[in-house]
Design goal:
The structure is a single chain. By secondary structure, this protein is an alpha/beta fold. It has helices at about 5, 10-20, 25-35, 35-40, 60-70, 75-85, 115-135, 160-165, 185-195, 215-230, 235-240, 250-255, 280-285, 290-305, 315-330, 345-360, 390-395, 415-435, 440-445, 450-455, 470-495, 505-520, 530-544, and strands at about 40-45, 50, 110, 115, 150, 175-180, 200-205, 240-245, 260-265, 335-340, 375-380, 400-405, 460-465. The longest helix has 22 residues, at about 470-495. The protein is globular, with a radius of gyration of 25 Å. The structure holds glucose-6-phosphate. Glucose-6-phosphate binds next to loops.
């Protein structure tokens, strides 16, 4: 069943009509006819500068997209989210990652209770723990200083911590070594503890539910590894395991003292939790002050999203442009290209944030959509990607909008490196937008047969996001920018970005198949013929 409301809405219809007039326009023409375009189509907020001039939009396109945002109720949906209304309707939950970075004096009510004091209580407890661990006051069971911290978690309880650790490594305590175990594949755990001394190792078991199969399997393996290494004394657990969870009962059942548990709440979605206690490893790495600076950065972007007029609102603009390409140009992906090596895990982090959030095909009302929703996000840091997949963006058949992210200053000034890096970033967006015509190629003396191969059509859209330097606050601003862009997209598409029912089925089926793999004598299988044959082959291979 189709959902008539979006595609039948006046703003959508106007955009569809307008698309017919502008889809063939080239950026060459757009820039030639307006010399101020590169300065005009920009916005600045919360310390980030956005140049969105290299998009296939006119002033009319922007007005129509902004009208669509108004018509879809972005303003009231946004306010409802910030107020703590239960906008995650399929799970009957508030969506309040923004409360995680609210200042101490703020008041945000959920079910009649102000949640902000609880948020700060946990942050203070995390800070005390981080200080004790970093200073050596928290020692291991044998009295040795902890030198290795291993976060065990998966999905939202892993991707944020890994990304933030890598992004803010410059600010981290280098006397501590961090590892992140997520996969149930034993290779992950085995490599993380390879060569480590259990007496110097602390595990942070991060799991909102404390029931996730991968995390609990790894946590039990870690427990066994630790006890084996420390002579089997169960008392060691208290000094080498802490938990981040909403489930105190399960944490206690695992054997972790709930005094060493850092809590959060059901109104924090997994992929929106890196600034909750799930960020404990981040705080231990960079210290409480830097962690609070990161939260302040998140909060600045929250305020910008709440207060800036839509035409100057960075997340709103990014979100609307994403809708424009996904639904009118049929673009299926967005490339995120940070020109900052420390952001190497940022695209992977964004994949979950964007795709688990907006990978939906029914509306809030349960109707099948008849338009495209969340695109595939992917990317790698520049300049590496230039020597790999950029070819397809420049000369392939797909239209792939790109987000370039760069910084005025490097954290590690070394000769000309940074200018070379940034010259490449600016050059890529220029080449994508304006390309190289056949005439230009011929003028260079290229043999006629090679001309078509060397033409760059151009007209490939991109945004450029510039910030001063990658510091904790800037990381917070960047993450919040994408969180709110995802929200903006979700409102336009009338979908719920905050549930993830799509991950359930595979989990359930795996639990059914597991005993079939472990019970090698059992032969009767009741799957499809492919799955049956694969299981049977796997069993035979086990016996050979
Ligand atoms: C994120 C998802 C998912 C979740 C993991 C881990 O939004 O809900 O990625 O974070 O499945 O869940 P636990 O934290 O409960 O172990």
């Amino acid at each position: 069943m189709s959902n008539p409301s979006l595609t039948q809405s006046p703003a959508w219809k106007a955009l569809a009509k307008h698309f017919g007039n502008v889809s063939a326009l080239s950026m060459r023409e757009l820039f030639t006819s307006d010399s101020s375009r590169g300065k005009r189509l920009t916005a600045e907020g919360a310390g980030l500068f956005l140049d969105y001039s290299k998009n296939r939009v006119t002033d009319d396109t922007l007005q129509l997209l902004l009208a669509l945002a108004e018509e879809r109720g972005l303003r009231s949906r946004r306010d409802a989210m910030f107020r703590g209304e239960k906008i995650n309707s399929t799970e009957n939950r508030a969506v309040l990652h923004t409360a995680l970075r609210a200042p101490r004096e703020a008041e945000i009510m959920v079910d009649g209770e102000n949640v902000v004091p609880n948020v700060h209580e946990v942050l203070d407890k995390m800070a005390t723990f981080a200080h004790r661990l970093r200073s050596g006051m928290w020692a291991g069971h044998t009295g040795k200083k902890i030198r290795h911290v291993i976060n065990i978690g998966i999905g939202g309880s892993d991707l944020g911590p890994v990304m933030a650790y890598e992004a803010l490594k410059f600010y981290s305590d280098r006397s501590l070594h961090f590892a992140f175990v997520s996969n149930v594949d034993s290779d992950d755990f085995a490599e993380a503890v390879h060569g480590l001394n259990p007496a110097e190792t602390l595990f942070i078991v991060s799991s909102k539910t404390f029931t996730t199969l991968e995390t609990m399997t790894n946590a039990h393996t870690a427990r066994a590894w630790l006890l084996k290494g420390l002579g089997g004394d169960e008392a060691a657990i208290a000094k080498h395991f802490v938990a981040v969870s909403t489930n105190a009962e399960k944490v206690a059942a695992f054997g972790i003292d709930t005094a060493n548990m850092f809590g959060f709440w059901d109104w924090v979605g997994g992929r929106y939790s890196m600034d909750s206690a799930i960020g404990l490893s981040t705080m231990v790495a960079i210290g409480p002050d830097n962690f609070r600076a990161m939260l302040a950065g998140f909060h600045q972007m929250d305020e910008h999203f709440q207060t800036a007029p839509f035409e100057k609102n960075l997340p709103v603009l990014l979100g609307l442009l994403t809708v424009w390409y996904a639904d009118f140009f049929g673009s299926q992906t967005v490339a995120v290209l940070p020109y900052e090596q420390y952001l190497k895990r940022f695209p992977a982090y964004l994949q979950q944030l964007t795709m688990e959030s907006n990978g939906k095909s029914v509306t809030l009302g349960g109707q099948r959509v008849n338009y495209a929703t969340g695109p595939v996000y992917w990317g790698e840091p520049g300049t590496n990607g230039q020597h790999s997949f950029y070819q397809l963006i420049h000369q392939g058949t797909h239209l792939i909008p790109c987000d370039f992210i760069g910084f005025a200053q490097t954290l590690n000034p070394l000769g000309r490196h940074h200018d070379i890096l940034m010259a490449n970033m600016f050059a890529q967006s220029e080449a994508l937008a304006f390309g190289k015509t056949a005439e230009q190629v011929r003028t260079e003396g290229t043999a006629e047969a090679l001309v078509p191969h060397r033409v760059f059509e151009g007209n490939h859209p991109s945004n450029t996001i510039l910030a001063q330097v990658l510091d904790p606050a800037t990381l917070g601003r960047l993450v919040a920018l994408y969180e709110h862009s995802v929200f903006t997209q979700g409102v336009i598409w009338d979908i719920n970005p905050f549930d993830q029912w799509g991950v359930e089925l595979g989990k359930v089926l795996a639990l059914k198949i597991l005993p079939e793999l472990e019970n090698l004598g059992e032969t009767t299988l009741h799957h499809d013929s492919s799955t049956n044959a694969l299981i049977e082959r796997y069993r035979r291979m086990q016996l050979s």
